[in-house]
Amino acid sequence: MAQGYGIGFGGRSLFEDVVSDVNVSFEFFPPKTPKMEETLWASIKTLEALDPKFVSVTYGAGGSTRERTHKTVKRILDETSLTPAAHLTCVGATKDEVNEVVRDYWDAGVRSIVALRGDPAEGASRYEPHPGGYENAAALVEGLRKIGDFDISVAAYPERHPDSPNLAADLENLKRKVDAGANRAITQFFFEPDSYFRFLDHCESYGIDVPVVPGILPVTNFATLKNFAATCGASVPKWLGNLFEGLDERPQTRSLVAATVAGEMVRRLYAGGVRDFHFYTLNRAELTYAICHMLGIRGLAEEV
Question: Which of 29, 105, 154, 194 could pair covalently with 58 via S-S, beta carbons 3.0-4.6 A apart?
Answer without folding.
Answer: 29
